[in-house]
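Please decode residue identities from the backbone states below.
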């Protein structure tokens, strides 16, 4: 998400010229023609006559002599320049020249009296003459080199060093601190170690500790990924090199790769430092997910260069590469390998408290009325990201300004919220109240079942803040110590917990929604595995219908069905009836705990996040 206070991207011009070479060329040509006219077209008729006759002999005379020549009408044309005068003899054979005498006011009246043709001229010396001729050529040569340099570079390094991308990456030393990043506690914790490493790399290097080279910041647009990356640089007081993944994708193949090389070169020179790559998906898209035409050469080269650079420096070089994306799943797996972006930090959309904190950060710089109620605004903005909140505060200040108020009032903030929501894209949408209610009951259903079922995993966090694009809310279970074995009752417990969401919608809201699709998929998978692989059902008994697939020995291959149609039918009806049975069971449980759920929903509704230790 763009930041208003930031300076324009360093390579904006370059992009423009790159994308519009014809327009650029046209502009240059017009300039050349105009300049040419300006230099060459200013000679008037008289001076060209005076200056331009080839067969003329030049003779230097004194000023007094020249005046005498005029008095005697021995000259017929006089041209007066800034420093000297030229006069042509009556027969046109001799050009008399003399230096001007400044304070003489009698020359012009004399010329008038004698009726001699005279005029001024701008003196041309060899320099202006040459320049006038050479200048257009110089410009044309410059243009030629400009384009040639570009072509050269796109073919792998310009021989003339023209069009170098050196200045395309600019670094800054941000003053942003962790305090400027409100909410996002967990994300801040995770990057704190990086700050420490950048501050005193030697300590870690001596210990032989392996520091992550690349950290992927994952989160929806506007959730503060750039801000967090800057804060890391600000806290560590190191240079911050910022580029956008899409700026690497240029018209000419090879430019992006050259830029990556330059970027790392500079960052190494200034190490310890931070490289921040925004929208890394623009270059790091999985090759398999590339276009239909077999992918994009330029992107692939750029990506390869990036991988090579990341592998090229050791963990003892204190450079950390932070990259932002909101679609980690489409990234090329090569990027996520150990030694590259092997660490992911989730930068979530803020919950209720988080929104309050973010609003407070931004409203600090604004004069507010005593009646402003940040909590109300936070409540109205469920599902919005930090950038949206920053915009809302700014918009409110603009509204207040338009009304010539001295302070921002609650009504301005409310109006700004309405405006912001009207202008939102689908991606960053607010959860409306109805949805929020459904999601709250659904998630509480999961949570209650998890807490009351023997053998179920305990709940660590319940949230109705959307994460990613798919899930509307989520319930995080605490993974218990590494588990390889699951008993039958634990599998059933997992099914119950998964069904809890849908059942809660039915019991408390009276209508079911599409929100349970993923849960139902997982319950079906578990039951299928119980029948086919684990020998846990009456239908198949101990018979194995599906072999466990080894993931690395051709795991993806499809196997022939090794059981009868009758068995398949039996399995289907077993799965269906077991699901029904469990579902009825779960509904009864929910009825039993109606009060607890209502309470939990109320709490979740207000705070949007509940962690497991709260009852
Ligand atoms: P992203 O890089 O994730 O798209 P940005 O870091 O560019 O988002 O966020 C844009 C702006 O939104 C920031 O400059 C800041 O003003 C505001 N913002 C976002 N998240 C936060 C936050 N957690 N605390 C304070 N301000 C935030
Ligand atoms: Zn669910």
């Amino acid at each position: 998400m763009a930041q208003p206070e930031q300076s324009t991207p360093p390579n904006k011009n370059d992009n423009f010229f790159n994308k519009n070479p014809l327009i650029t060329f046209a502009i240059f040509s017009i300039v050349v023609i105009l300049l040419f006219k300006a230099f060459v077209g200013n000679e008037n008729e008289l001076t060209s006559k005076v200056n331009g006759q080839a067969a003329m002999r030049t003779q230097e005379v004194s000023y007094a002599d020249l005046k005498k020549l005029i008095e005697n009408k021995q000259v017929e044309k006089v041209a007066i320049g800034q420093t000297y005068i030229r006069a042509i003899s009556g027969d046109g054979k001799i050009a008399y020249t003399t230096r001007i005498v400044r304070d003489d006011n009698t020359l012009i009246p004399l010329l008038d009296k004698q009726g001699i043709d005279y005029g001024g001229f701008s003196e041309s010396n060899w320099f202006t003459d040459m320049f006038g001729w050479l200048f257009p050529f110089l410009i044309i040569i410059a243009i030629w080199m400009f384009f040639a340099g570009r072509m050269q570079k796109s073919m792998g390094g310009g021989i003339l060093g023209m069009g170098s991308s050196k200045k395309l990456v600019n670094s800054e030393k941000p003053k942003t601190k962790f305090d400027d990043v409100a909410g996002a506690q967990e994300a801040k914790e995770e990057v704190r170690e990086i700050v420490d490493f950048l501050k005193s790399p030697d300590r870690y290097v001596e210990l032989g500790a392996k520091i992550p080279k690349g950290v992927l910041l994952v989160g929806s647009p506007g959730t503060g990924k750039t801000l967090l990356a800057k804060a890391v640089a600000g806290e560590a007081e190191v240079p911050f090199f910022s580029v956008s993944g899409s700026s690497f994708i240029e018209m000419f193949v090879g430019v992006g790769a050259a830029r990556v090389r330059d970027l790392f070169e500079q960052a190494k020179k200034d190490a310890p430092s931070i490289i921040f790559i925004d929208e890394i998906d623009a270059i790091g898209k999985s090759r398999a997910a590339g276009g239909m035409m077999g992918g994009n050469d330029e992107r692939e080269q750029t990506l390869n260069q990036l991988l090579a650079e990341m592998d090229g420096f050791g963990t003892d070089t204190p450079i950390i590469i932070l990259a932002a994306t909101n679609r980690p799943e489409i990234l090329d797996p090569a990027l996520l390998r150990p030694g590259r972006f092997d660490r992911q930090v989730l930068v979530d959309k803020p919950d209720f408290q988080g929104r309050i904190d973010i609003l407070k950060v931004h409203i600090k710089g604004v004069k507010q009325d005593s009646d402003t109620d940040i909590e109300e605004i936070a409540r109205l903005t469920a599902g919005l990201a930090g950038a949206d909140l920053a915009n809302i505060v700014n918009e409110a200040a603009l509204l207040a300004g338009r009304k010539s108020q001295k302070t921002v009032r609650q009504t301005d903030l409310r109006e700004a919220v309405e405006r912001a929501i009207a202008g939102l894209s689908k991606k960053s949408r607010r959860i409306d109240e109805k949805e929020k209610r459904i999601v709250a009951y659904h998630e509480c259903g999961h949570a209650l079942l998890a807490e009351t079922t023997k053998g179920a995993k305990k709940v660590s966090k319940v949230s109705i803040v959307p994460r990613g694009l798919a899930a509307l809310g989520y319930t995080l279970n605490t993974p218990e110590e590494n588990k390889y074995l699951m008993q039958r009752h634990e599998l059933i417990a997992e099914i119950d917990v998964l069904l809890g969401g849908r059942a809660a919608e039915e019991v408390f809201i009276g209508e079911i929604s599409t929100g349970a699709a993923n849960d139902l998929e997982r319950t079906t998978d578990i039951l299928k595995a119980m029948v086919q692989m684990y020998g846990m059902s009456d239908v198949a008994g101990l018979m194995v219908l599906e072999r466990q697939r080894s993931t690395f020995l051709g795991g993806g291959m499809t196997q022939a069905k090794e059981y009868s149609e009758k068995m398949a039918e039996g399995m289907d009806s077993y799965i269906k009836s077991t699901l029904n049975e469990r579902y009825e069971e779960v509904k009864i449980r929910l009825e039993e705990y109606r009060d607890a759920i209502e309470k939990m929903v109320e709490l979740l509704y207000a705070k949007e996040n509940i962690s497991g230790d709260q009852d």
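Observation: The mean pLDDT is 78.
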